[in-house]
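hey can u check if this looks right to u? its 294 residues, i copy pasted from the old doc so theres a chance i mangled smth
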Amino acid sequence: MIRVTNLSYTFKEGRAPALRNIKLEINEGEYVALIGPNGSGKTTLIRHFNALIMPESGRVEIDGRSCRDTGHHVDIRRAVGMAFQNPDNQIVGMTVEEDVAFGPGNLNLPPAEIRSRVASALDMVGLTGFEKRTPFSLSGGEKQLLALAGLLAVSPRYIVLDEVTASLDPTARANVLAILERLQAQGVSIVHVTHNLEEAAKADRVVLMNAGEIVADGPPGEILTDGERLKSVGMAPPTVVELMSRIMTPGVRRPGHILTLDQAAEFINSCLAGAGYEPGQDQGQGQPVLREAE
């Protein structure tokens, strides 16, 4: 697991700490969404996970290896793959296949194994056939998929994503999320920093940060439906949560954890059926859509 114990970090003396006494555990095969407003410390925290930043105080351990111990850095960085918001920051190859081969090549794997890993990674992200393309001829979404393929080729136990979907169109975003779902099914742990709360709803856990601290940690249905807490840290609740809060009337009990349009539609349809309203019925002839319970 990734274990963070009493972690604090300050970039410059005299400035407010970027992280304050963080305690966090992320287990094998778990999908954790890390959310919070800009400046809340999300990126600073995850850069401790593969020893890009050293703890100022406290401990960060990856599978029991301390990030403070430089002798563990090779193993830690092999275990924890990280993708940044701007994929140009981590593309190093002259062609797509060279870029994906860079990681396994540095592991001194046999050439046949490297070719196999490159082909498998490109197939998983949907870039088969792009092998001879130059990375900088790719679209932004394709570059992000290329960066993800580079991570997959070294088979990390943990994948850490820093706003990788922020600049993607809906199709490319859906592709990335589908890949993450498949990876988790294979036992890979996912840590996904995102401002998109609809994406966060797909995680097993949501960790909410503000001003360098963890202010909430729990299931998506608990964290993301608490609109007042989200607004208190400057975040807008998910669209569906805001919708449900606006259409509710006194006396109608809403189940807690409605996070998707499908869940909202199912609940609204049940209310309509309870009010005697049939789908397709003329609105003027039916009962009120959501009325106070009798």
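Residues 208 and 216 are 5 Å apart (CA to CA).
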